[in-house]
Structures are given as C-alpha cells and as structure tokens.
Amino acid sequence: MTENHNSHHSPYYYAYLNLRSNGLAMFGVVIIIAAVLITVLGYLIIPDNTPQTNQGSPQIKKQLPFFTVDILNVHKNHEVEEAGFLEALYQGQESEYRIVPLQDYRIEGDEIVITPYGDSMQESRFSLVNVIAPVFVGDSDKLPGESNVDYSSDPIRYVNIDNEIKTISRSELISTIEDELIESRTYWLGTDSSGRDMLSRLLYGTRISLGIGFLAVLISLTLGVFLGAIAGYFGGKIDSFIVWMFSVIWSIPGIMLVIAISMGLQNKGVMVAFLAVGLTMWVEVARVVRGQFKVLKEKQFVEAAQAFGYKNRRIIFKHILPNLVGSLVVLATSNFAAAIILEAGLSFLGLSVQPPTPSWGIMISEGFDSIGTPNSWHLIVLPGIAISLLVLAFNLLGNGLRDALDPKSLLK
C-alpha cells in the first residue's frame, strides 16, 4: 500500500524523516540508546554485580585488557543478606565470597594451599571448610575440643554461623572447591589500580554520567525556561533584572562557578554534582528562551489570544512555549554533553562523586596517579574514550536535530 503524497503531516514528522536520513545523527542515537539500556539494566549486565562494582584484589592490579587469571572464591565468615530484585538491580548484591587470585593450588590434609598470583615465593593456607561456608566464631560446646570443625571423621562435621552442626563428606567438600569455587576469570578491559574490573566500572560510570546529565539538564531547562519566559514576555524592570543576572553569571568561568557551588554546599556526592552543574547551565537556556519570547510575543496569534482575554500564563505555556520545543530539544542535547564533561571534571578534582563509586572522572584521576608506572595507559585511555564517545553522541544528535528542525529543510 503506497502512502498518499497529498496526506498532511506535522512538521515534526518531516523533521523525523530528515533526522533518520542523517547517518552521523543516527550513530549518536545508537550510542545514547545503548547508554540508556546500560543504565536501566544496571547490574543485570555488569560483570561485577557487587555494590559500586568494588570487588577486587591488589594482586591483580593494573592488568591490561584480556587478562585471564584463576580465582579462588573464599566464603566470607559472616552471613550476607540477599537483596531483593529491584535492590539488586540498582544497588547490587554483596558477594558471599572474597576473591583470591592464584597461580597454583594443592590439597594438603585439611587445608588448601595456594600460590598467590604474582608471588611464587609465598604460599597461603585456608581451612577447607572455611572456604565453602562461614564457621561459628567463639566458644561452642557442639563439638569436642577447641575447634568448631572436626576433620577426624568422614563426613566432616562443623558448627555453622548459626551455631548448628553441619556435615559434609570430604569428597563433596573437595569437589565443591575445585568445581565451583575455583574459576578462570577474564577481565576483558583489564583491572584498575585496586584490582577491580575496568569493564564493570566503566559500565557503572555510564549510569553516573547519564543520571547527572539528565538531572542537570532538567534543572537547567526548568529554571532557564521559567526565567527566560518571564523576562522575554513581560520585559521592563523584570527583564532588566534577569539580564543583569545573566551578565553576572556569564562573567564567571563555568568550571569556577561549579566549584564554588560544590564547595558552598559543603557536601560531596551525586546530589551535589547535578545541583552544581544544573545551576550553572540555565543561563544559556534562559537567554535563548528570552530572545524567542521577545520575537513571538509580537506575532498575531499572541495578539489574538490577548484579545480573547486569555491570561498571561495560558499565553506563555499554551501558545508561545510550544513553538520553542525544537530549539529547547537541540539546546538540551548540547547541555547534556556539557554536563557530562563538567561532572567528569568535578569528579577528577574530587568535588563530585566520591570513591569507591565509579565515575569516569574518578577513574581518570586514579589513572593519573599511576602515570609513568607499567601497565597504566588503559586506566586513563578507557574512561577517556567513554567520555568522548558519549559526548560525541549527544553533539552529533544535537547537530542532526538542528538540521532536521531547520525550516528550510522542512520545506524540501
């Protein structure tokens, strides 16, 4: 069935067609959609699903991409509360195990003896039962002697964390360790200076950058549209005062203003980051909105609305503001890219997200401290590429939207 060429479509339909034909803009859209999916799916797709992807080991720090190592998972000697689905999805699930990278291992009697990764001259020993389960700590009369693990018989008996006697056969115990708790793990993008998975931390950093960028743009749009609309529509002293505010804020370098707001709030973290970034980005929005309102309020459709006796609020929000949607969307994409860079800069300076939360700016800062040491290039290059790619995506989308919404292109 062919489309009727005489059928009427809104300008936004033709803008969509123009955007879809722009290859670079669609590349940006694909990157942004991928980033949004990473943010929404959270720990479902992050290899290290512990809170803030903070599981690591100093023995494997600063390993290059595609690094593979054998890992012994040793059970923590305490109970780990299982998180609900939503909590695990967005906050992570604490692991029941701590990881011990190893070069080799052997079973000797009641212990597993390992040669730690990177140190062939040293050996570490772990009680077999302590590897697979938490053992009761303290005095217990459940078993004879001072130990809460009895290896003298088969099956082996031990007192668990709830002070209850459990049994397990020696063959099952060794099989559990060798088949389930010793694994070969590949770090596809290497490890950071604390031995944590770089891929997991980069994926988590996407959530930080997108979250702060979205909230910062939302704040800047809300404040900028409100003040710009008031200044442009009413004019007079209100306009003069708001323009004076523009001039004062624009006279201060953006990064200095963000730093001042961050330090003035006397707090550090995600909330401060998006507040500081959002409160410094509204000026450009307000300037554009003010200029558009000054032009549009002189149009005949506004005069007609005033003649019908409509209130100023209705004229502003129902008649003038919808005509600015295209400009605001383009401006929002540009501000989104700027917000990502500002947040990374604040994190790099230690004024935004704080360790161990993985922000791309923090990752670059940690890599910066390792410059000149072996195997350190990826600590800066990988988060740098992530920042550049996401910023490029928003800029490409912004350029594509600007061209797609150009009235000249809509008339073609």
What are the key terms here?
single chain, 412 residues, alpha+beta, 5-stranded antiparallel β-sheet, 3-stranded antiparallel β-sheet, 15 helices, 55% helix
Q: Helix proportion of residues, in percent?
A: 40-55%
Strand portion, in percent? 5-15%
The tally of helices reads 15
Radius of gyration: 29 Å
- Biggest sheet layout: 5 strands, antiparallel
Pfam families: BPD_transp_1 (PF00528), OppC_N (PF12911)
InterPro entries: BP-dependent_transpt_permease (IPR050366), MetI-like (IPR000515), MetI-like_sf (IPR035906), OppC_N (IPR025966)
Family: Belongs to the binding-protein-dependent transport system permease family.
Subcellular location: Cell membrane
Question: What features would you describe in this structure?
Answer:
- By secondary structure, this protein is of the alpha+beta class.
- The chain is built from 15 helices and 8 strands.
- α12 packs parallel to α13.
- The radius of gyration is 29 Å and the shape is elongated.
Question: How is this structure best summarized?
Answer:
The protein is of the alpha+beta class and 412 residues long.
Strand-helix topology:
Blueprint: H1 11-20, H2 23-41, E1 67-75, H3 85-91, E2 97-108, E3 111-116, E4 124-127, H4 128-132, E5 149-150, E6 156-159, E7 165-168, H5 170-181, E8 182-187, H6 198-234, H7 236-250, H8 254-264, H9 270-296, H10 300-307, H11 312-320, H12 325-349, H13 360-368, H14 377-404, H15 407-410
Antiparallel strand pairs: 1-2, 1-8, 2-3, 3-4, 5-6, 6-7
Helix pairs in contact: 1-14, 2-6, 2-14, 6-7, 6-9, 6-12, 7-9, 8-9, 9-12, 10-11, 12-13, 12-14, 13-14
